[in-house]
Amino acid sequence: MAEVEEVRKPSEESTDESEEEDSEEEPKLKYERLFNGVTEILQKDAASCMTVHDKFLALGTHFGKVFLLDIQGNVTQRFEISSVKINQISLDESGEHVGICSEDGKVQVFGLYTREGFHENFDCPIKVVALHPQFTKSNYKQFVTGGNKLLLYEKNWLNRWKTSVLHEGEGSITNVQWRANLIAWANNVGVKIYDISTKQRITNVLRDNVSLRPDMYPCSLCWKDNTTLIVGWGTSIKICVVKERNPTEMRDLPSRYVEIVSAFETEFFISGLAPLADQLVALYFVKENPDNMDEEFCARPRLDIIQPLPESCEEISSDALTVRNFKDNECRDYRLVHSEGESLFYIISPKDIVVAKERDQDDHIDWLLAKKKYEEALMAAEISFKNIKRHDVQKIGMSYINHLVEKGDYHSAARKCQKVLGKNMELWENEVYRFKTIGQLKAISQYLPRGDLRLRPAIYEMILHEFLRTDYEGFATLIREWPGELYNNNAIVQAVTDHLKRDPTNSTLLTTLAELYTYDQRYDRALEIYLRLRHKDVYQLIHKHNLFSSIEDKIVLLMDFDREKAVDMLLDNEDKISTDRVVEELVDRPELLHVYLHKLFKRDHHKGQKYHERQIGLYAEYDRPNLLPFLRDSTHCPLEKALEICQQRNFVEETVFLLSRMGNCRRALQMIMEELEDVDKAIEFAKEQDDAELWEDLISYSIDKPPFITGLLNNIGTHVDPILLIHRIKEGMEIPNLRDSLVKILQDYNLQILLREGCKKILVADSLSLLQKMHRTQMRGVRVDEENICESCHATILPSDMAKPFGVVVFHCRHMFHKECLPSPGTIPGVQFCNICSAKRRGPGSGILEMKK
């Protein structure tokens, strides 16, 4: 098939033609001209009608010939039917029988392989013929013809043709379509539907625009399915649905009725209709009136896809078709037929046949590429790679990359390489060299393959040299991101060293060189650079490669860089660098030594015990807040040495603690009262020691100091009787807040009384509850059976002869005895205790017994 020129629906005029192209929507259909044998036929003759089967086409001409064609338009059979125009050709579903009618009244129905059938000449033109869809399989061989009347032909049991008039009197029959048991036809008045199974006419759809000549603007009929008929006439389209009538409503009415579900007007005259899923394909005859002239001209026919609505329609797409001699054609000269097996639509005109088909994924990609929408084309190809036939995903991707490079969007082009080039090493290397040629190696560097799939080392080295020449930061990034196996490490180390000769203090190059040394397992060289730069990765390097032997003489440098990390690392690896070695290195840096020993002490109070004496001075010098906690937690520091240091530095709190720990509590209390003058701390100290003599000293010292007396009155109520203090207060002494202090003493006393009463109530309630629980427990029955034994004689508790009298004693503790096995009663008459539980000194509840006989 040859492609046919297609003109999109004209849009509003715009001065910017490129803008109009960009806004153009993708067409829904593609068009090809049917040629081969058709071309030769239409050069000498003109097409008048055509019908389509899944296997072949049947074309009728104005000179009375019928041609059977294959899908490509090649002639397979030719029939000389008449010398005048063929009006209609009808095929049954099997494609084995054909019905033909012509303008001179000839009607022929015959088998394509037998030529046997019906041949008749009428005295008027026969416009239409339609075979029963199951004509080949049916015994009745039914078909209809239409001229001035609609006739039904069928064979009777004698194998003779029987004729029935289905309709007459309303002018010529111009169209007929048979689907299943329903026959639809059009005449000058409207459209009728006949049910062949019930032999009833079920509807009459009247023609809307009666001003149009029916022979110039014929009716278009098309069955969408077995119950849906599409009617187009003039500029009007109606969709009719055949429905079953409710049996209760039938009476004398047909069993079926027709409901018009959609009716709307179109802009142009309808030449043909066909279904497309839930949409319609409409062929329009268009007349134009250029520059408001009086005379109208025939324009290109239009093929539209429309979405029917109840009272209107929505245009989905619209194409103007350049068919041969379109300026000479009228509305009746065009036909639209479709193939139900495929979405193929044939536009027939006297001198041309055009095939429209839905665009496939290849067509969609063609359109996207033509519009330079490469990314969408690539995405569409990737999604439908199994269905596309004319395109290759990689070639589309390469076109996209070329387009991006031409635009100057090098980074996007490089990013697409990763997806498009895949594992094709040759394409990768070609692209790298192309990016080098245009000076854009940096753009493609981050997208090069670096996993299992790798290029030649020279490719990576070329890019690294480019970065080293122009961008140190970018070079460092690539060294960090790229595995060292990609390139020759020694060559890159040498290149970096050469650059450092010109710029020896460049931290970026030094850091990168350290990373290269690390990859090359020259860790000592890397460590030197990291320490020189005070780089944060130095600790990670030491841990990862166990470089502790290399840092024994660099401990001060490490701690100067980051004390916390250095100390944590040294303490975590004491087995590799001993505490003594660390102390030896830090002896000249006491502030660093203190940090190390302090963390060591926090981890384990006993590990660095031999340095505790030294730590006293270090804490006193660099970290006094932690001196007192150290003195409290350490059991190895010499108290005399600590006391001497604290007294020299006048550390009162620490001195008080040491004096109390050494047993000199009175001196400690005296320091609190005299030097700190803190009554609260003195009271707290006295509470901690809980010594009556200390309380006496505290009262004696405070008795002539009113603020101290107030503090004592407020705090000693729970440790010392306040009366002792009150009796010793001199008469006439003014004491601040005395009333409040006395009220507090009374409140504290009342609170103590309330607490005691509350505790007493709780104790009594708990005792009663437990007594009741014990009583309920002891009142429960105890199961006695042959499995129980006497705890004294160890014989079965129940006798073998239950008829004889016997006595059993069961205690609340669940021990059981024969009555005769019990020892003599105790001192309390009538009360016996279990020997076993009494021996174990259990409570009295386990001894009370219960006699059972």
UniProtKB/TrEMBL annotation:
Biological-process GO terms, alphabetical: cellular response to starvation; endosomal vesicle fusion; macroautophagy; protein targeting to vacuole
Subcellular location: Cytoplasm, Cytosol; Early endosome membrane; Endosome membrane; Late endosome membrane
GO molecular-function terms, A-Z: zinc ion binding
Sequence ranges of Basic and acidic residues compositional bias: 1-12
Coiled-coil regions listed in the entry: none
Region of interest: Disordered: 1-28
Domain Vps41 beta-propeller: 29-358
Ranges annotated as biased composition (Acidic residues): 13-25
Mapped CHCR repeat ranges: 567-711
Spans through the membrane: none
One GO cellular component term: lysosomal membrane
Membrane topology: Peripheral membrane protein
Assigned keywords, A-Z: Autophagy, Cytoplasm, Cytoplasmic vesicle, Endosome, Golgi apparatus, Lysosome, Membrane, Metal-binding, Protein transport, Transport, Zinc, Zinc-finger
Family: Belongs to the VPS41 family.
Known role: Plays a role in vesicle-mediated protein trafficking to lysosomal compartments including the endocytic membrane transport pathways.
Protein name per UniProt: Vacuolar protein sorting-associated protein 41 homolog
Lineage, highest ranks first: Eukaryota, Metazoa, Chordata, Craniata, Vertebrata
